[in-house]
Amino acid sequence: MESRSVNDAELARDIAEEAGRLLLAIRAEGREDGKALGVRGDHEANALILARLAAARPGDAILSEEAGDDRVRCACPRVWIVDPLDGTREYSEGRDDWAVHVALAVDRVPLIGAVALPAQGVTFDSGQQFATIETPRRPRMVVSRTRPPEAALTVARALDAELIPMGSAGAKAMAVVDGRADIYLHAGGQYEWDNCAPAAVAIAAGLSATRLDGAALVYNCEDPMLPDLLICRAELRDVVLAILAGT
Length: 247
Ligand SMILES: Nc1ncnc2c1ncn2[C@@H]1O[C@H](COP(=O)(O)O)[C@@H](OP(=O)(O)O)[C@H]1O
Ligand SMILES: [Mg+2]
Hints:
Layout: H1 8-29, H2 34-56, E1 61-64, E2 78-86, H3 88-92, E3 99-106, E4 109-117, E5 122-125, E6 140-144, H4 150-159, E7 162-166, H5 169-177, E8 183-186, H6 192-204, E9 208-210, E10 229-232, H7 237-245
Parallel strand pairs: 1-2, 6-7, 6-8
Antiparallel strand pairs: 2-3, 3-4, 4-5, 8-10, 9-10
Helix pairs in contact: 1-2, 5-6
The structure holds adenosine-3'-5'-diphosphate (A3P) and magnesium ion (MG).
Protein name: 3'(2'),5-bisphosphonucleoside 3'(2')-phosphohydrolase
Keywords: Hydrolase, Magnesium, Metal-binding
GO molecular function: 3'(2'),5'-bisphosphate nucleotidase activity
């Protein structure tokens, strides 16, 4: 029987923070820059996360952006879904909007997750307490800084929302969790590892996290592509979905 001395959310947080410290140390070394820095960071953070999960939860399956996928996981009820470095481009550019994602989907539901933002010195996990945040009169929407989707721009125009460009799905989702933004809308392509941990934390924080048609987010699918999502304050969900349905 494997050891469960820490619960799944604590384990996810510990591992995400440890990978984050490694990524900060690699960047501080200054041996690589640009693409090579991102490649090394992805590779070493992935190795650390896979080793830690295999030791702590040997009975569970793993889906990682940086590891092969034999799809044996599809028959497993508990699957860890990890992105060792989300926002690789931003990490390589010396910015602080990048993240480490460690999530656990149970029966395809994003139940547990941790999102570390190592360069911002903060980690969020689905087991923590979340502060109550007031909704401002003018909504703020985080969007990809390099490829903001047309659907997000349409919603922003309709709501007169302020647009905040930012890298990394995890960094954007956590901006909504901690009240720096109210809506994160993505379309056009993403994978389960990009949004599983962010969605798990967002749902635990009482936010709405769905597909752009309002459907539930389902994980551990045969094809790990999960191309669009909406994470927002629960009270904004219906109005955003109605705007999207009308486009
Ligand atoms: N159209 C698309 N197709 C595939 N992946 C996409 C995508 N748009 C964004 N992503 C992925 O989603 C994450 C956040 O992107 P963005 O900062 O543009 O919002 C990045 O993950 P990685 O950095 O792990 O590759 C990026 O590769
Ligand atoms: Mg990613």
